[in-house]
Amino acid sequence: MSERKRVAAVFDGTYGGFLCVVYSSYYDKLDYAFIDEGEVEIRLDAEPFYVAADRGKALRVLTAVRQKISPQAESNLYHAFLADGPRREDGRDDSRLINLLRYIRLGFRVGRAVDDYTREPYVRSTQKLAFAAAREAQRLMGFCRFTLTDQGVYYASVSPVHNVLPILAEHFRDRFMNQLWIIHDVKRGKAAVYDGRDYRVECVPPQANVRTNVRTFVREEERFQHLWKAFFEAVAVEERENAKLQRQFLPARYRTHMTEFLP
Amino acid sequence: MDILEKLQILSAAAKYDVACTSSGVNRQGRRGSLGSAAACGICHSFAADGRCVSLLKILQTNICVYDCQYCVNRSSSDVPRAAFTPAEIAELTMNFYRRNYIEGLFLSSAVMRDPSFTMEQTLKTLRLLRQEYRFNGYIHVKAIPGADPNLITQVGRLADRMSVNIELPSEKSLRLLAPDKTKHSILTPMKLLTDAIVQAREETRLFPGAPDFVPAGQSTQLIVGATEESDKSIVRLSEGLYKRFGLKRVFYSAYTPVISGHPLLPASKPPLLREHRLYQADWLLRFYGFSASEILPDGNENLNLAMDPKCAWALRNPQFFPVEINRADYFILLRVPGIGERSAQRIVNARRAGALCFDHLRKIGVVLKRAQYFITCAGKTLETGRVPPALLPVKLTETGEAYQQMNLWEDGPLALRDEANV
Ligand code: SF4
From CA B110, how far away is CA B77, in angstroms rounded? Predict the structure, then answer.
């Protein structure tokens, strides 16, 4: 059996890096069987091919997706990239990125109709993941809670299923333009830090317990938390109490970070 | 009285107000100010009853000079009273907003002293928020009938949405139960808002940057089940409000008994199911191109509680069916029971890539439970969809649990989710 060895794209794990994988699949004419993020990995079933991130190439792909496919496809691409898909035993991404690549390649063939190809499993799974990530981002735009620290910074901690921190940061850069804030993804050990003009995403070592550190509130903070809890309790209509419905809209995993559900 | 106590009294007094959606306006943040507005609306929490919490919904005061019989805050009722100052409301709003508890403020009020005085308090609050604090988030306020039009106009320049409550569905009922209000006193500010909104829209089209006026539009609310009006007169009234006044939303709120042994008021709440059916009918009016006379033709005074109004219409109009999924246009698809906007859109999109069969429909998430009796795919009917016409009403009747309130809520309180499952 002289089967040609398959190729695995290896990229730096960033969105720009992934766009360069898309670029490379055309210009290097490689039909990738796998896509791996981050460090080198020894595979027995495929040859690694390293794709370097390149801003120019990434932007070209993005523009092409928007213009030759559709803004919807661009949004699906971004959200599915941030999504947390099925994983292999070693914790690495299983099929999400390769499905996403196939989705984009189909898009370049059929244009905006790509989202109509719902009978293709990889189109469906990409749309599904994109939807899930977008929904979680949308939820957290409402659910994430800031507390005012004694340094005058509004601090929020989150632990989302999908990597929605960049989306949240974009949202709050606009909304909380004139206050300092930090959004800390405790699950991934990353934090978006806004300095009054723009934000940057920083790595926070997992052992650094930022949450308890910055929980040195100003007195005012406690007062408003108290008022908020009182309001939250007062607005529920007792005769219509419905914990099941509440759970459906606001799953328990979000509550550990929400003022009104904390003791 | 401290602010905590006021907040407890004045948020509890406002909680039955159903208009909680914050949608309808998109506004980006601005340098030097705080806040933005998202047209799709953002839920910030869900209360123990499963309702979305998105706005700081409070009354300015519950001290009232009027004596509307159906209201807990009527002057003759014995309840604890409180009043916020504009500064207190502004401080609460800002601090809740900065912590991302809320999307904005929903400010309503009882009539303290007189309508103009009340409206003036609202105006002061909004000035503080918009001008002092440079608050750029969402604000919905109630216009008080009878207030100086000048004040209402000034408030409108600062608010995103305004509403005047219709309260009761007919003039006669108003006379009986809310003697201080008349159809005229309610419709006057409504008309004022409508005209100012239309004018501002034209101005901003001609001169971008011209001042906004209530950019998220006007809504209203009416109480259902306190008086004897039929569903037909309510649906007709709503149709008129949408057409003549260009309202964004009409909210229906089931009457909650506040007084026992009143000669004119029912002792119990009307079935929640009625409220639910009215919201479904409202949805048909606003988005599906139905008219009030199609929803309730002559001889049908009230909505059928046992099935949604679209099913009821379909049963009365068998000549319209079956609808062929691969050919029917979007608005025809929308008339099929069980096919909503999302499904209709998916069908229209998916069939561009080739003819659809029932399997495809299921795969793209179209629920066939009710639709199966009314559609064909490439000329074929689904096996289970072949039912003698006489049996159809039975098949479409929602079974026992739909009558229970709990399940109704699980189905989705329509007023609150802004989505109707019809
Ligand atoms: S004016 Fe408003 S608050 Fe006062 S009694 Fe009538 S409905 Fe109640």
Answer: 13
DSSP 3-state assignment of B117? helix
Does A1 reside within a domain? no
Q: Is A134 on the interface with B (CB under 8 A)?
A: no
3-state secondary structure string across A33-96:
CEEEECCCCCCCCEEEEECCCCHHHHHHHHHHHHHHHCHHHHHHHHHHHHCCCCECCCCCECCH
Q: Which helix (H) or strand (E) holds B218?
A: strand B218-224
Separation CA A145–CA A224 (nearest Å): 12
User: What secondary structure does DSSP assign to A154-201, as a single string?
Assistant: EEEEE--SS--HHHHHHHHHHHTTTS-EEEEETTTTEEEEE-SS-EEE
Residue B260 and residue B217 in contact, taking contact as beta carbons nearer than 8 Å: no
Structural domain of residue B186, as residue ranges? 3-217
Q: How many domains does chain A have?
A: 2
List the structure tokens of A109: 């063939």
The residue to which tokens 């995403």 are assigned: A201
Query: Rg for chain B (alpha carbons), in Å?
Result: 23
**Cα A168 to averaged position of ligand 1 atoms, centre (Å):** 41
Among B43, B53, B350, beta carbon nearest to A232: B53
Q: What 3-state DSSP class applies to B115?
A: helix
Residue A206: pLDDT band by 50, 70, 90 thresholds?
Answer: low
ipTM: 0.89
Pick from B151, B186, B217: which residue ends a domain?
B217
For residues B129 and B121, give the distance between their C-alpha atoms in angstroms, rounded to a whole number.
13
Say how many domains are in chain B.
2
* pTM of the predicted protein model: 0.86
> Are A154 and A202 found together in one domain?
yes
Q: pLDDT value at position B365?
A: 84
User: How many CB contacts within 8 angstroms connect chain A with chain B?
Assistant: 156
